[in-house]
Amino acid sequence: QVQLVESGGGLVQAGGSLRLSCAASGRAFSTYTMGWFRQAPGKEREFVASIRRSGGNTYYKDYSDFVKGRFTISRDNAENTVYLQMNSLKPEDSAVYSCAISRLLRATAAYAMDYWGKGTLVTVSS
User: Fold this and answer.
1) Which H or E element spans position 64?
2) Which of 25, 30, 90, 95 has the maximal Cβ count within 10 Å?
3) Whole-angstrom distance between the N-terminal and C-terminal Cα of the chain?
């Protein structure tokens, strides 16, 4: 069994930054793919980013966000933690952000994830 606990959410003004963290308990964290998803009120949950076990491959819902430096996913296997750095935040980024874990080598959809955290709320004011 794997437990995931997110932190780092909060209220931020548009243009601001937040760094989300997800700490995992359980064995073999480094063998899993980790992902971030978000769900805004009244909307479907959507994929944000994921990172392979080695950290060498990352995937983003919108690759331009990564290129522009808006969203960056990273992981520290020694600390059993995955991060989501979010810059230049927009009001439409407001959502509950949840991390998830997958035994698949590549996972970019909710159905591919095996365990979920409860989420952390991000609110971006205009």
Assistant:
1) helix 63-67
2) 95
3) 40
- 70 vs 64: CA distance, rounded Å: 8
Q: Using an 8 Å Cβ cutoff, are 36 and 8 in contact?
A: no
Q: What is the pLDDT of residues 59-109, one digit of tens each?
A: 999 877 777 789 999 999 888 999 999 999 999 999 999 999 999 989 999
Contact 102, 113 (CB under 8 A): yes
Place of tokens 């159905």: 111
DSSP-derived 3-state class of residue 3: strand
pLDDT in tens, 50-60: 999 887 899 99
CB crowding 98-112: b at 16 or more within 10 Å, else e: bbbbbeeeebbebeb
Type of residue at 84: L
User: DSSP letter string over 17-63?
Assistant: -EEEEEEEESS-GGGSEEEEEEE-TTS--EEEEEE-TTSS-EEESSH
**Per-residue pLDDT at 13:** 98
